[in-house]
Amino acid sequence: MSSRPAPLIPPRVRAVLVRVPGLVAAVRFIRRGPLARDRNLLITLTVLALVIGFLAVKVSTVWFSPSLLILVTLVGGLQLRLRSLVKLLVGVGGALGYIAIALGPGRIGVGLTVTIVFTTVLAVLMARTRGKLGVQGLRGDAMLLELRDRLRSQGELPPLPKDWGGKVVLKQAGGSSFGGDFLVSMRDGNSVEIALVDVSGKGVDAGTRALLLSGTFGGLLGSVDDFLPACNTYLHRQRGDEGFVTAVHVRLDLDTGDYTITSAGHPPVVKFDAGTGNWQVASAKGVVLGVVPDLHCEPDSGTLRKGDALLLFTDGLIEQPGRDIDAGLDRLLGEAERLLPSGFRDGARPLVNAMASGHNDDCALVLIWRP
Questions:
Q1: Which CATH fold topology does 144-369 show?
Q2: What is the pTM of this model?
Q3: If 300 and its partner were Cys, which of 239, 277, 284, 356 is the partner (CB 3.0–4.6 Å)?
Q4: Helix (H) or strand (E) holding 69
């Protein structure tokens, strides 16, 4: 059964309005085409600007201050297309000119003039940027927020059994929501695959490429047997000059605890051996992604037993200007010793904060342990 929405205008009123000359044509013009919303807002803001100018002269500049035109210009810069914004600015200029002629230039003042000029330039720049993106209003910001949320959800570990634990800590440079470090993971039955990736650069500069690669690498993870060689083939095919990409891939069997580590120019994975109480550096090696056409990795394998853990991290956690990377790794292992009293889950973020203090770089840490 189909249903139709109730008309907003009663039939009798509609019949009377239809007879009004030109009303139907005007309504159709306002509602016609994809630019209807932009046109309507332009008309509204232009009329508002002219009304403010008229009332400032006829009533009072206290109640209808010319500074209200700044708000009109800002709204136009946020919502209108560039062509429509230019038309609005003409209306704003006309309102200011009318006030200056009727009340004298002193009622506007140099300060207000400079502020309106600055606001005009800002509005034009915002309208041009949105025009290049092909979005209206604040939709561009909403898209970035959605991409950020998708990247964060993708960077979470899949649900693990009760006899396993996992923790992910991502800290971007400058407190940004985007960065060059990201995680992709998936679980298929009792098999878990984790890939920690580091894109050269930091903060927002590396965030755009990281957003692109996170979708690509996430699609490859679990779909191919050789994950890192497949990623290398994709990056080498791009033939771009956007910097290097390093990655480490871990395939873990949740039943037996067996794992295999492959690395492509990434800092080594560290394993905690509960039997000896020591941290051991994995021997997996490989060149950075996208440099050579055929990537050959030297994997490392082992078994996680009760109390063991795997620690994955990016170079932002151990690299500091003027210091050797081995010294940073030694410091990381020393700080990791403090994880043992508080537990891996509660100690992961303090470990990142301790290692990241004093320098501004993207940092990422992944902990997988077997209680």
A1: Phosphatase 2c; domain 1 (3.60.40)
A2: 0.69
A3: 284
A4: helix 68-79
